[in-house]
Design a protein that fits this description.
Length: about 260
């Protein structure tokens, strides 16, 4: 579990995050949503440790990261997997070499152990027959799956995904959502996803944090969001007729399940 308490972050005196507190639970998909410029990317980077915070605490399983020794901080970094918005694969490396890269950098495994682990991770994301291909030779959806395979190759305790569905068609986005959700449950890890994809919110949002102008405005789950009276959240999530219709359908599905 990851917990943040009273997190504040400013750039050149301009507040970006204002006193945000929440918990991201283990074994669940935790989503951060908000408009462009709301501060969600800054929040994610702060939690990962890519940005220093001005005030507050970030606790990984109860330990404040600002108080960790260099040795523990290094160990924590190896417990973190990251899926970047564009995939961030190395163009000059093959699919297999991309997934193997963290193993070469951070472990002393034998060559056979590395080969076996890479194969396991590629199988886990349903990549077959593409080991020797380069990122430019595979589709956008496949690149995202390879990025997920690389993110889990060190068997992380925490998985961070920044707009994993960006640039993907709706069907591929659903596949990526389901894959991340299944991996989260199977590996029992803490997953945090930055997203603007409302289908992700409605389908895999075990915990949802909505921020606006750097402040926490709402938190709940994918069922509670159907019935929220928070006007700012409703204006953001259900602004289009498509998502209003989706909300109606989801409410009916939920009623049918409960009856």
């Amino acid at each position: 579990m990851i917990e943040i308490k009273g997190l504040c972050k400013s750039f050149e005196g301009r507040p970006i995050l204002k006193d945000i507190s929440t918990k991201f639970e283990k074994g669940k998909t935790n989503l951060i949503i908000g408009q462009s410029g709301s501060g969600k990317t800054v929040l994610l980077k702060s939690i990962v440790g890519l940005l220093d915070i001005d005030e507050g605490e970030i606790l990984y399983n109860g330990e404040d990261v600002s108080h960790l020794s260099d040795k523990k901080r290094k160990s924590l970094r190896q417990d973190i997997g990251m899926v970047f918005q564009g995939g961030a694969l190395f163009d000059s490396l093959t699919v297999e070499e991309n997934v193997r890269f963290p193993l070469d950098m951070f472990t002393k495994k034998t060559d056979k152990e590395k080969v076996d682990r890479v194969k396991f991770c590629l199988d886990r994301v349903d990549i077959k027959g593409a080991n020797d291909l380069y990122p430019a030779e595979i589709s956008g959806g496949m690149r995202k799956r390879v990025a997920i395979a690389r993110a889990i190759v060190l068997n992380p305790k925490y998985l961070f995904c920044d707009e994993p569905n960006s640039g993907l068609d709706p069907m591929t986005s659903i596949l990526i959502d389901n894959l991340i959700n299944q991996i989260t449950q199977d590996l029992d890890i803490t997953t945090i996803i930055n997203t603007h994809d409302m289908n992700s919110v409605m389908e895999i949002g075990d915990n949802i944090l909505f921020i606006s102008h750097g402040e926490k405005w709402w938190e709940g789950n994918k069922n509670e969001i159907l019935y929220t009276s928070n006007e700012k959240l409703n204006d953001f999530v259900f602004a289009s007729p498509l998502y209003r219709e989706m909300r109606t359908l989801k409410k009916q599905e939920l009623k049918d399940e409960q009856s």
